[in-house]
Design goal:
Elements (H helix, E strand, L loop, with lengths): L5 H10 L7 H5 L2 H10 L2 E3 L5 E3 L2 H9 L4 E2 L7 H4 L3 H8 L8 H12 L2 H5 L2 H18 L1 E3 L1 H5 L1 H10 L10 H10 L7 H27 L8 H7 L9 H14 L2 H16 L1 H9 L4 H11 L5 E6 L3 E3 L2 E3 L4 E5 H4 L34 H18 L4 E2 L4 E2 L8 E3 L1 E3 L7
Parallel strand pairs: 2-8
Antiparallel strand pairs: 1-2, 3-5, 4-12, 5-8, 6-7, 9-12, 10-11
Helix pairs in contact: 1-3, 6-13, 6-15, 9-11, 9-20, 12-13, 12-15, 13-15, 16-20, 18-20
Bound molecules: protoporphyrin IX containing FE.
Amino acid sequence: MTPATASDASTLARDFDLRHLSPAFYADPYPVYHALRTHEPVKRMPDGSLFLTRFRDVQAVYRDPKTFSSDKTVEFKPKYGDSPLYTHHTTSLVFNDPPRHTRVRKLIAGALTARAIAAMEPGLIRLVDGLLDAAAVRGRIDLIGEFASAIPVEIIGNLLDVPHAEREPLRDWSLAILGALEPSLTDAQLERGSRAVSEFVEYLRDLVGQRRREPGDPQHDVLTRLIQGEAGGEQLSEAELLQNCIFILNAGHETTTNLIGNGLVTLTDWPEQRAALLREPSLIESAIEECLRFESSNQLGNRMATVDTEIGGVAVARGTPVTLCIGAANRDPEQFAEPDRFDIHRDPNRHLAFGFGIHQCAGLSLARLEARIAIGRFVQRFPAYRLDGEPTRGGRVRFRGFAVVPVELEPSSAG
Ligand code: HEM
């Protein structure tokens, strides 16, 4: 859906409301993002919040956490009331400002060092190759359910050392909790999200109790690290500990699943790019950056103005919620030449898929590693894989990805 004329584009921009989106938008939001960037780059929505689509505006807001706060204690009250979802989201580091943010961030970052991540690579390769072997036997698979989603659940489970037999509910809890961050929600979604937080907390209480009795290696085990706190420094409260464990388990799930799924689907849409990757497997690193830019799995970020200020020349009153559209910023022609072209050679490619500034994704090296191994090995193993029916979208605006993607792995050349 590309607007035929400039006035169509200006109508698209004028009518845009994040709370009322059409099915066409979920399929392809980029024409709307382009229209907004051209006609109303700092768009005021009916609820009074602002929606940003220019790279430079989004980056400027990320860069200034004093003026643009991440704290959601006020903003989330009407949405979540006193529910477990409210406690969870307002206690997670991503929705806290310094100094609360800083102490949790330090503990997590300390366990996600380059060395700790490199040590995960051999196990990750074994996991991916095992999934590829099983897929080869079947011939046709659902790329999401039988490949992409199986990888992060293991990796994040390992990071907190969650016993294998106990990992099954993690994905559904995570989908229910993150799903409740969508701009508009039904009562059933709210209820499901709150129930998931309660069950998750109950589960983690036991796990934390066991880990207190038998600590793991804090160099690798994020849970032990969070429990022990900094040497001679402060410790996290029980609520901070439990809610941030939930956040880490969630943060690395759907986003990474979607990166792998979006990347493999995009490569089927751009056969000459897939051929280039097959000819030159060392392009995998820049290919992953392009997948992150082109179909950013986390499309939206949020901040709130703490003082009267301005964005891109538009006056912004204190207390105004601001939505940062990563998906639009990553298609801004001012930053990326021919932004709607998927180009695995793109260099430089300074996208905002992981955010920017003090809250920039703490798991970005891990996500990159997972995608590199998963997408790289899948493409080399099944060079001719193709879609075997229409993929089903996940139906979310914040977390962009597919729910189901049927693929045929080794189509005969006649097909
Ligand atoms: C493709 C995969 C991923 C994407 C696109 C992604 C994206 C993001 C973004 C955009 C933010 C910034 C939010 C903000 O500033 O408002 C963020 C924060 C965060 N992410 Fe990721 N993420 C991914 C994978 C992961 C993984 C695998 C982990 C865990 C190991 C993780 C852990 C975190 C944490 C802890 C934060 C909060 C950082 C802070 O507030 O200081 N993410 N992520």
